[in-house]
Structures are given as structure tokens and as C-alpha cells.
DNA sequence: TAGATTGTTAATCGATTAACAATC
DNA sequence: TAGATTGTTAATCGATTAACAATC
């Protein structure tokens, strides 16, 4: 069977990492099989949704049995591209950039941080987790010597348009954007925005509209 | 007219901060009025969606004229609760907690950081942006002396269940959760999760499924 | 007034849930 | 085999888009 023709909605995709996380926990607890019903109860979603979601990518289960936890875990990891050894670089070695560089859980998911860049020459040469900070001028040379898949943008919004376009021109595949601007780029690149302020304001809304208060 | 009876969907709410951001930019550029059509073109959404979204909360526009930028900006800010002077505390003064503490843009949106807590006694007394780090043991006393609205959870997932329940028991209104676990709490609290790994995996999926490669 | 644009209803589209035959 | 549970189709629900009368 071929599933690559169906267009999978972003809503489904955004649920995959959560399935992956729960399956990882089950695996850690030596659970070998699970039904969509039991998983749905643990996760607080419907069993129907789980089966629909998974069937966007293939028939991973077995009637009367359920799903093999390890197999499903690996399949979802594969769908998410976690075994492709994607490399990342961080642009902007400020507080957020440093925090992300030190966040070991990304490595655990198969992402490899290979470079950190900043415009501040005072930081150049400093090392974070064994990776030295380079000046932005070295970016083009770095791309000649390394395959860089993902750019992590932890710079103020003022510089992000120019820098991101530069990365796209260098052939980067994806941008993980923490700067508070919407990227609008010429070229073929995937973008994932993390707008922390938006998230905090959403929480603020929920609190404000809460019935109890 | 009263709009407080309509249940506003989370999809609408999550778009409000983005409207707020664009309106803020317009205001900065001295634009005094804007139509849903023009705003829709700038933002890359439909004019219909903008009008529908806004009308969940009230009729902020005027036929034949459009929307007054400053008025709409302030109204949305008010809906989001940005003028309520919400206070925040950070739990976990590791890399991420520090980065969030130094992130001045939250203050710009009206949130006031009043405390930072950690279990590591070596950090206690240290100051970040003038706010000294306290030990977790001081949490209860701190609540006696301060109104705390929002808890920012930047701790490893192992401790988050206990700590968050403690905060809820102390009467916190909202939790902004950066730890890689889903909170499941007894009590009345609003939760907003920021699962960075999930976001990175979503980007990884987009790259992996991209047609060009 | 005439033109522009909203607020709002109706139509469409997509996502979620329910149901059940297939089958392990 | 009988029971369990999937894969998948059909029904429902909700969100988005289109249309247009109201009105500034």
C-alpha cells in the first residue's frame, strides 16, 4: 500500500510527537502492546482519532491485538524524520540561544547541534557544550564544510529577515524561529515558529476569561 | 450588547496575539485606520476570518470606514488581559529559566516577574535582573506576601507534577509549562504548554516530507 | 448621496467521532 | 472458534469562507 499521496493535515502532524512521547514512556515501562482504546484513555483523546491519525501513514496495528509499542514508536519516529541525523545550528548566542544549546533533549531526539553563530565578536571563541561560538561572517564558509539542515533563530526580530534569507540562500531545509516576527521568505524552506509571547498571551486570555474569578 | 455568553474557540483565541502584534506594528507606523481587507493581505489570512474573529468579542469596526487601529489594539489587549498587571514567578533557574527571566518582551506585554525559585541552594541569593533567586522552601511564605498569578515551569519533567500541584494548592491562576510532560492537576487552573521538542519534531516532519528533496 | 466596509447569515469545507465489517 | 480490536466508511460537528443587507 502507498500512503504518500494523501495530504496529511497539520493537525494530525502536530499530534504525532505526543503519540511518540507516550509510546516512549510505555516502552520505558516495558509495555509491549497497547490498544487504541487504552492509549486514548491515557492521553485523553478518542480511540477513533488515534486510529484515524495513524492510518494516514499506514496500518501499524493488528485486529484483535492492538499495536506493538516498540514497532509503532519506531515507525512514528521514522515518519517524523528523527533517524535522519538532522544537523542544527543556532543563530544568536544570547540567553535563549544558550538555553537551547544546553537543552540536551534535542540530541536525545536525534538532532545534532554542530554550530553556534553570533554577531558579537566578544563571544566568538567561547564554547557551549564543546561547540565554539563563531562569528556570523563565517557562516558561508561553514556551509561549505558542513551539511546544515536546520537553523535555530534566537535573535531579535530586527535582524531575522536578512539572516533567514541568507540561510535559505545557503540551502538550509528548515528554520525554527524564536524571533517575534513572521518569516516571509523567497525560496524553498520549511518554517516552524515558536512565538513565546503569543503563548503567554493565550494563557493570559484563559486566566482572564476563567469563570471562577 | 453582551458577548460573554458565546463560547470562543481556542483557534480564535490563538489568533488574537497575532492580530495584536500586527496592530502594534501599524500603530508604530502611525497608521490610524485599517480595513479587514488590507489587514488580511498583510497577515496572509482572509478578511472574512478577521471579521468573524473580532465579532466574537464585539463590533469594533465601522461600516464604510474599517477599524481604528489604536482602539482595536487596545481592545484586543484588554481581551487578552494584558492590562491586568499579572504577576509571574519562574520555577527553575536553569538555562531556560534564566533565558525567560531575561526575556524583556514579556514585561512589555504587561507581565511582571516578581520571583524566581530553585531547589539548588547554591543558586539561592543570586540575582537575575534584580530579582533574587529563592529556595523552593520559601514558596509558601512568598505567596502569603504576594499575589502570584502565573507560574512559569522551567524544571525537568520529573519534578513538575509535585511542584505544579503545590502551586495550584497555593491558588495560582495559570501555569506556563515548559517541562516535557502533560500536566494533570486537581483543581482550578489554566494551563498552557510549550513543548519545544514537539515543535522541533514537527519541523523535522515538514522537512522530511518536503517534495523537493 | 454614493462608495466602502462592516456585521452577520448562509454555504462550504475539513476535522472529529461513531459505527461496523474485516480479520487477527 | 470466540473475543477483541483494527482499518475504514459514514455521520456529525465545528471552523472557515462567501455573500450580502445594513449602515457609516
Description:
The structure is a homodimer of 213-residue chains. Chain A is built from 9 helices and 10 strands. With 213 residues, chain A is an alpha/beta fold. Chain A has 2 domains: 10-79, Arc Repressor Mutant, subunit A, CATH 1.10.10; 87-199, Rossmann fold (3-Layer(aba) Sandwich). In chain A, a hairpin with a 3-residue loop joins strand 2 (61-62) and strand 3. In chain A, helix 1 (10-28) packs antiparallel against helix 4 (69-79) and helix 2 crosses helix 3 (47-54). The model of chain A has no long low-confidence stretch (mean pLDDT 95). Chains A and B meet through helix 1, helix 5, strand 10 and helix 9 of A and helix 1, helix 5, strand 9, strand 10 and helix 9 of B. The structure holds a DNA duplex (24 and 24 nucleotides).
According to CATH, the fold-level topology of the largest domain in chain A is Rossmann fold
Based on CA inertia axes, which overall geometry of chain A fits? globular
- Decide which structural class fits the backbone of chain A: alpha/beta
Question: What topology, given as strand order, has the largest sheet of chain A?
Answer: 6-7-5-4-8-9-10
Portion in helices of chain A? 40-55%
DSSP strand count of chain A: 10
Would you state the CATH class of the largest domain in chain A? Alpha Beta
User: Would you tell me the overall average pLDDT of chain A?
Assistant: 95
User: Strand-and-helix sequence of chain A, N→C?
Assistant: HEHHEEHEHHEEEHEHEEH
